[in-house]
Amino acid sequence: MIELGTRQEVVINGLKFFIQHMDPFTALHTLGELQKIASPLIAEVAGVLEATVTNSDAGVMDKDVMDMAVLLPAVKGIFLSAHQYIDGDNLVNVLKLLLSSKFISVDYNGKKNELNDDMIRFVFNGDMVSMLELAYHVMRINYADFFTISTTRFGTLTSRVQV
Q1: Which residues are paired to 107 by β-bridges?
Q2: Which of 22, 46, 88, 156 could pair with 26 as two cysteines, CB 3.0-4.6 Å apart?
Q3: How confident is the model over 11-24, as pLDDT tens digits?
Q4: Cβ neighbours of residue 52 under 8 Å, at least 6 residues apart?
């Protein structure tokens, strides 16, 4: 169990960010919002991969996902369908959930500051990629155990399912 209030330090472009785990209900709500964007895209990629495998002699587990014959159709599928699931409002709303000042602070000039909207505009001005990197770390810190524990707990089930 993680001690309440514990924050993990992440350094991005020389700035120290301190990320606290979300409370369980906020984490579930945020996960639900993330899945509304991610699930359809994953389904699109799965459909492309299924079609690629169906048109070859190799099974799905025998395919090299870094092989351009597999990778390019999957990337094309994402780009052709992403606009259906991701728009500016959805992206901003999910980022605001992930980058909540309740759970993130930043060390600026030797002082910890809440990562509120003004601080976000200040530290990420012209650097959208670093803001997305911070969102990645928030997801990693809050959801990595969810995915590792889920695969462990449901491992026997997945071994019985034929892919």
Answers
A1: 16, 112
A2: 22
A3: 999 999 999 999 99
A4: 63, 69, 70, 73, 74
